[in-house]
Amino acid sequence: MRLLHTSDLHVGDDIDPGGRQSGLRGVVDLALEHSVDVVLMAGDLFDHSRVRDEAVQPVLQELSRLSMPTIIIPGNHDCVGDHSIYERVRLQDAGNHIHFAGAVGGEHLLFPELRLAVWARGIEEHHPGHRPLEGYEPNSEDDYWRVVLTHGHYVPGSEESYRSSPIHEHEIAGLECDYLALGHWHRFMDLSANGVAAFYSGSPSEAGAGIDSANLVTLDPRGGVRVERLHL
Question: DSSP of 12-41, one letter per residue?
Fold first, then answer.
């Protein structure tokens, strides 16, 4: 099974609106080119809650080109709650394959045909007390692949952090999952710990900065988890 992991597209950013749309288009093209089974979008699809309607419609059009399950969580730029962009934009209008996981405490999405369980938790309030991995429990099906999808700031080792939405290295090491798909940092990084494959994917919308990439994740019963960085 193959997943495409992306994040931080920031559609609606007034600095480079065309680049943001082309980043999303590139992600959809990659998903189709590699015939992936699932697409994971780890937050900040939109740049803010005031994104204009004329920028929203192309997003729905691009998402409608996909047919595989596509799981999207809110990040710190497009968090859920009062005045969220998701109060006026229904991503599911792009098709039944779109799964917007906006539950504040996180939620499990099960795909029996793929033997896949995804626990997804986005952001309602981006502050130091928000713990993106809090509440995760592995699903009870032992023969399912387990994927966690969240958005936050990585904290290495025993380092203390006063940044918002911290994800500590020891939390990653203690996860009972096969792959942790992260969003928030705009660069590719391998943060795997204690046998848990954990990665940031880069930001596809920032062409020319060397960070415009997405992760092609292969879940192989014989070979385990393999991650290939794909540049757009």
Answer: T-TTSHHHHHHHHHHHHHHHHHTT-SEEEE
Segment 47-50 long-range contacts (CB within 8 Å, at least 24 positions apart): 47/10, 47/11, 47/12, 47/13, 47/20, 47/77, 47/78, 48/12, 48/77, 48/78, 48/85, 49/78, 49/83, 49/84, 49/85, 50/12, 50/85
pLDDT tens digits for 187-230?
A: 999 999 999 999 999 999 876 667 889 999 999 999 999 999 99
Q: Is residue 68 within 8 Å of 31, Cβ to Cβ?
A: yes
Query: Cα dihedral sign for 208, 154, 181, 21?
Result: negative
With contact defined as beta carbons under 8 Å apart, do 135 and 175 qualify?
no
DSSP summary character for residue 63: H
**DSSP structural state of residue 196:** B
Condensed to tens digits (0 to 9), the pLDDT of residues 89-101 reads: 999 999 999 999 9
Instruction: Tell me the whole-structure pTM to 2 decimals.
Output: 0.95
Contact (CB, 8 A) for 59 and 24: yes
Q: Contact, 121 vs 150, CB < 8 A?
A: yes
d(CA 147, CA 162): 27
**Rounded distance, CA 77 to CA 125, Å?**
10
Summarize pLDDT for 29-46 with one digit per residue, the tens: 999 999 999 999 999 999
- Mean pLDDT along residues 123-149: 92
Sheet with 179-183: list strands edge to edge.
Answer: 107-111, 116-121, 145-151, 179-183, 197-201, 188-190
Q: What is the DSSP letter of 56?
A: H
Task: At 200, list the tokens.
Answer: 């940031």
